[in-house]
Structure formats: C-alpha cells, structure tokens
Amino acid sequence: MSDNSILYDEGAGIERLLEIMRRLRDPKTGCPWDIEQSFATIAPYTIEEAYEVADAIERNAFDELKGELGDLLFQSVFHAQMAEEAGHFTFQDVVTTMSNKMVSRHPHVFGDETREKSAEQQTADWEAIKAAERAEKDQQGTLDGVAVGLPALLRAYKLQKRAARVGFDWPSAENVIAKIAEESAELVEARDHLSQTEVEEEFGDLLFVMANLGRHLGVEPEAALRKANAKFTRRFQGVEAKLATRGKTPSDSDLTEMDALWDAVKADERREE
C-alpha cells in the first residue's frame, strides 16, 4: 500500500481517519487552520457536534445521524492527535481507557457477578464503581468530577443528584415546589428593589431549583428544555406560515394577531394527534 492509498481506501476504517488527521496537522504540508488549533479552540466545536447528534436523534433524522456521529468521532480524533503531538496520550490509549472502563463497570456482563439484578441495583452498583474510580483519582469531595464545562442546566441537575446521594435533598417534590414559590417571590423583590446583579443571582437560584424539581419528577431538565425549544420553533413557524397565507410577515403583524394564530396552530396540532 502506497503512502497515499489509505487516504482513499474506504475499507481502512478508523486507521484511514487517523491518517487523515495526521496529515491535516502536519506542520509542513497540513491545513493551516487545523495546524493552528488547540484543545481550547476545538472544545466548542466538540460541544456543538454533540448537540447536533442529539438534535438528529430528537428529530428521528437517522439519515443525518450517521454524518453527525462521524463529526463527533472526528472531534475525538482531533483531540487525540493534538494530545499525541504533545506527548500526553494516543488515540489507542483513549480506546484502551474506555474499553477498560466499560469492562470494569459491567461485572455482571464481563465478570462473575449475576445479571439477575433490578435496574435500581445495577444503578447503585454503577454509582459505587464510579465512586471508587473517583477515589483513585483523589476526588474525595461529593461534587468532585462534575464537569465545569457542562451546560449550566445539566450541571445543576448533576450537582443536585450528587448531593442527594449523601442525603442533602428535599424529601419530596412538594418541598421543591414550595421553594420555587419562595425563589419566585425573591426574584420579584429583587426586580423591584435591588440591583441587576442581584436580579441575576435570584434568577439563577430559581433556575437551579427548577432543575431540582425536574430531578424529583424524573425529568432531565436539559432534555425537557430542548423539547420545549423545538415545540416553540415548530409553533412559531406555524404562525409564520399562517401569516404568509395573508400576505404578511411577523413584522407586519401585532401581538394580538400572532397570539390568535398561535392558538390556531395549537388547535391544529391537537386535531392531528
């Protein structure tokens, strides 16, 4: 096989992609943009690609999912190439680490433990194994290891979930709902009498408690908000479509008309269900 043949060999699998990445980062012959990148500059693209995967799944766009998963895989390859250049680790090290982790975390599949466990027991065992892994990394605090770079709403959910494991939690959803009422009142008070900084703080407190309510209700808040965003987008586009039949755009309309059309779009959806 010639030096370049792997670049066009569709059967070469992951080795083809790794070679393409090495070529892109070659200091002498690679792509100037790729060569300039660092972990910090690529990280936002990694997050974006993960969300595009989630978006394709949310829309059941499985024809797009293949490409989106490829984009996300490329992000891992990109980071691993930069890490290898810096002498930190290789892509194979990434694969080995993940394989070891999955084998270790599934003793009921790859070890001697029985598979006859409830979902709750498997979850408890999983968390115990992860706690042991954190201890090996000297992550002794309850909240250690919850990534700072997560979307804020998702991180709030995970922080609260961690705290709940050690008993720092409201007894029921009713307690959380009462706290939401309290935080809402504090936000109104801040709006009327306090500084913008304090308004922001109270607003953050309210969002944090809303994330906690989601956990108590078995709702992952990031996923719920993503669905709400999709619903709003769909319905507003429906409003635009109805305005278009009148020869108008939202800029030509007003709130009264658009609100009525919004209700009409909702009614259309209910008839289609």
TrEMBL record:
Keyword field contains Hydrolase: yes
GO molecular function: ATP diphosphatase activity
Catalytic activity: ATP + H2O = AMP + diphosphate + H(+)
One BP term from GO: TTP catabolic process
All residue ranges annotated as the NTP pyrophosphohydrolase MazG-like domain in the record: 37-110, 173-235
This protein's UniProt keywords: Hydrolase
EC primary class: hydrolase
EC number: 3.6.1.8
KW Cytoplasm (keyword) present: no
Any single Pfam family the record assigns to this protein: MazG
Membership in a protein family: Belongs to the nucleoside triphosphate pyrophosphohydrolase family.
NCBIfam families tied to this protein: mazG, PRK09562.1
Protein name: Nucleoside triphosphate pyrophosphohydrolase
